[in-house]
Amino acid sequence: MVSHLKAALALSTVLAVAPQVQAAPSGKRQATEVPAADGALRLSLEEISVMLASANADEVRMAIEASAVLGSRDVSPLLAERVRAGLPPELLDAALDVFAVLNDPQTGDVLSELSRHRRVSVRQRAVRALAALKRPEYEPVLVRALSDSDAQVREAAAVGLGELPKSTSFEALFRAFDRGVNHAGHALGKVASESQVPRFLEILGRVPLTSLIPVFDGLLSRRDLSEATKLRLVAALAELGTSEARGYLEGIMQKLPSDTPARVRKAVAEAAARIAQ
Amino acid sequence: MTHAHTLKLALLSLALLSGCAGRESFSSTFPVNRRDDLTAALARAKQQGAPQLPQVIVGVTEQPSGVFAYDLSRARLLFHHRADITGVPFPAGPFAVVPEGDALHIRRLLNGDNVFDVSLDGMHLVGAASDGQVTAVVLSTGGSMGARSRLIVLNGEQVTVNRTVDRHLGGPAVLGGHVFVPHNRVHFSILDVQGTELARIQVREDVASQALTFDNEVYFGQAGMYRVDEKTALGASGGALYFKVARDEKLPGQPAFLPVTAEPPPAVNSAVHKVSLSFLPELRDGSIGLLGDTLYMMFYKQLYALPPVGSSAHWVYQTDSDCVGVRAVADGVLLVEQSGTVRGLDRDGRPTFAADMGLAPVVAQVQAQVLPPANVQADAPAPLVMQLVDAAMNPDARLVPVRALAVNMLAELEDDAATSALVELCQDRETPERVRTTACVALSKRKSGGTQAIIAALTRHADFLAQTKAPPVGPLAQAAMAIGDTSVAPYLLSHVADPETPTEELPALMLALKELAFAEAAGPIADFLRLYHAEADEQPMVDALVLAIDILKKLQGAEARGTFELIANDPFAPAGIRAAAGRALAELSPTPAPEAQADATPAETEASEPEPEPAGPPEYRTTAHVEQALRPVIVKLSKCVREAPKRPNSARLTVVLDGDGEVLAVETLPPEVKPCVEPLVLSVPFPGNKHGRRETLTYTIPR
After folding, report:
1. How far is CA B262 from CA B60, B167, B187, in A?
2. How many contacts (CB atoms, under 8 Å) link A and B?
3. Where are the alpha helices (DSSP H) in B257-300?
4. What's the pLDDT at B182?
5. Which residue of B has its CA nearest to A2?
6. Cα separation, B130 vs B127, whole angstroms
7. What is the pLDDT of residue A228?
């Protein structure tokens, strides 16, 4: 009898959410879940667990979507397990979207696995979600994703590497930057150490300044870089002496953090003025 | 005079008359295969030995239109005569024989002066030859029926024969003052300088199209060549000395072994002149072969030195511009390029001679016996494998057929370098499809020589930052399987989870892993199966997954049961994959599958009874467990199906069971039977499983 009650609970869930299901078994409990304010269904963890195992694609989808609004991270392992057991494309995509919403470090491993999925859209979603976790243990996965054949996967990986608190991926990002991964520039501006800054000065003048702007934006805005390093950057831009450099220096004045050292601000202003002459 | 004497005289006169009429040159009644006549004529022809002729090139230029002769010995232009050249000219001893406008001109090589000319009269130049003193020229309308030909013979510069015959004459040869002429496809005649036919051979088993002389011997033929001697009339099968190329493949462009003289000649500027063969015959040990065992094949910018049998190559030489003439000589081969460059290559393909003629021929014919004195110091040719790789990678689109040939020749070489080259060609998406496919097929068929190259190729993965491409995993896997070297297996395995491995190459990869039985493959293969079994929307992926099931069964045996259960019972998986998993489960089980599933899917029909469990619940539940649990109500369940409004043939039941056997959910297809089916399903007990895992199972309810 207990088993029947449990079954009734699961079935009532199905009945409540699946319009194609016509009738509930007699003598069973009524559904308890209600739609969330945003329209998504609210199911219990147990109900989600049951529905994830359903043979009905609509029910699995409902369970996946309900996972996003459950408000409990206990659902992450369930969802990860279901993904590893194999899902049709549309359901896997839905699960990945939920992983992104959950932003739960527990999903890191399954996202890492999916970052090598055969379908590009899966890799894109997985790497974006993984990047959003900002977990250093997945840095190697993101570095590997920089080598993906798909540009969006590479860009997502570069964004993620730029968000890591202590990225050690400078070389990989630098190579990605060299290969035209746009967000690698942004990331490099965030992760380059003092000793790595000269690498940008070496290529200044050899690559279009526009491609280096994200790097310089990041470097000049950083609080953890020394004043001397920033002054070297400004000096290099001044030495470049092009109208693009002047335009950039004039523009950066507005974007510098308020606590930027006065000497740096002054150097930027003077460099812009010097080029103008 | 007695009556007897009168009769004898009459018979003698008749015999003399008939003998004279029958021996007229090229007459249809000329006696054939007279051994004594042939022996005598050949002996006279060979008395003087092989002639030494001027080493020259005679060719045609288009801008300006004209004919030229170039002295190879002195490396200087002999003449360049502007004219409307209407056919390919021939060098013939001291002359250049040139179709110009409506006439044929026989010009002195030394200065181009006209020695003799005659109207073409609707015929074309078939061929010309000389022994230095006697020169023979043949014109013909071509064709077999109603053909008309002209034979011109010169002794020195004096015309001794200039007659037309109502039959086709082929390309002549001259030796020791005797003229050798193939005619009417089946005859080969020897004439003296006055045009008197001395002997005739009736030819079998090949066409008498073109005659040639070399090393004081005479040959003729078309598809192959006969040596002219007393046995020639016996035919190739009767013991005559006969040679025919026996390459394994058709040569690109199918160039003729000897000219097909009955056909109209190609235009002067035809591309046909850039695809041709050249060779010299050689008598050895009572048979005919090719001198140096080499058939030279010119194909636009490539020259192949080929053995006459098999499918390999001695060497390949590539030129900067198109080749318009080729001639095998005793110690190598001479090439004439469209750029005006003349090259001499020794028998190993090493350049020994080069000269610039200072004009650009569109077609050229070479008269030479040996290479000119060396004037080039060239390094030893690169190894054959490199020559073939270079040839196979030549980007000239016209060379695609011969590039594919080069790839097949590469496949003949059993070493790592050849394998590496095949890998490169197979994986390069820029390579023309025909060449690439040839390389991939050749790679997949390799049976030896190349394990290291295969491993080196498999070590590489597609990497955007490293700018590397995925190797041709499928062909490499097939090669690894053919070689049977298990050391390749780990490298193959690394491509299973690589998304850059093309789907169409997955089946070959899986098959190789199955054959190589690499134990460590089990884990990654199981992961692959679980992850993709519900996503298989392409047949290669289905094939790969079915093979993956086989691998797991082979490597893990009963340990793989869990994975197979998952797949066999997953309604999202394609039927073929579910069936394969069901078969694997059945093969892992000691008892046969239950009956009463007439309308079940393959996965269900082939799922077996659960193994007898010595104690406790089964590790996994199967459709068989469901069937067993439903036996008490199966009649009622069938009634539900029979009485459903739409009267379906069967109904699919899906039950979600908790680890302890509790029913968590019931679904049916069609949904209309659910109100009837569900209470029945809920009324029977289901077994639990060993690890308390939730499982979704399906079962087909028959009518």
Report:
1. 23, 11, 13
2. 128
3. none
4. 97
5. B662
6. 11
7. 95
- Whether B684 has its CB under 8 Å from any CB of chain A: the answer is no
CA dist B172 and B614 (Å) reads 95
Minimum distance, in Å, between the CA of residue A97 and any CA atom of chain B: 17
CA distance A88 to chain B (A): 5
pLDDT at A166: 80
Of B5-14, B46-55, B479-488, the poorest mean pLDDT is in: B5-14
- Per the CB < 8 A criterion, the answer to whether B670 and B623 are in contact is no
In the predicted structure, residue B4 carries a pLDDT above the cut 60? no
Output the pLDDT for position B603: 40
Helices marked H in B377-432? 384-392, 400-412, 416-427
pLDDT digits (tens, 9 = 90+) for A218-265: 999 999 999 999 999 999 999 999 999 999 999 998 889 989 999 999
DSSP state at residue B185: B
Judged by a CB distance cut-off of 8 A, whether residue B429 touches chain A is no
CA distance linking residue A239 with residue B287, whole number of Å:
84
Contacts by A62-67 with C-beta closer than 8 Å and gap 24+?
A62/A17, A62/A18, A64/A91, A64/A94, A64/A95, A64/A98, A65/A40, A65/A41, A65/A94, A65/A98, A66/A40, A66/A41, A66/A42, A67/A98, A67/A102
Instruction: Confirm if B574 and B536 have CB atoms less than 8 A apart.
Output: yes
pLDDT, residue B3, reads 54
Task: Name which residue leads in pLDDT, A33 or B677.
Answer: B677
What is the spatial distance between Cα B55 and Cα B284, in angstroms, rounded to a whole number?
26
d(CA B325, CA B341): 11
Burial class (CB in 10 A: 0-12, 13-18, 19+), A211: middle
Chain B residues with beta carbon closer than 8 angstroms to that of A56: 654, 667
Choose from B429, B461, B464, B699 for mutation: most chain A CBs within 10 A.
Answer: B464
- Which residue type does A122 have? V
Nearest beta carbon to residue A175 from set B465, B503, B698: B465
Measured between alpha carbons, how far is B410 from A68 in angstroms, rounded to an integer? 58
* A157-174 tens-digit pLDDT: 999 999 998 878 999 999
- The predicted model gives B298-304 an average pLDDT of 97
8-state DSSP, B525: H
- Preferred mutation among A54, A118, A174 to probe B, highest tally of B CBs within 10 A: A118
Tell me which residue of B249, B251, B233 sits closest to B241, measured CA to CA. Answer: B233
Higher-scoring residue by pLDDT: B605, B207 = B207
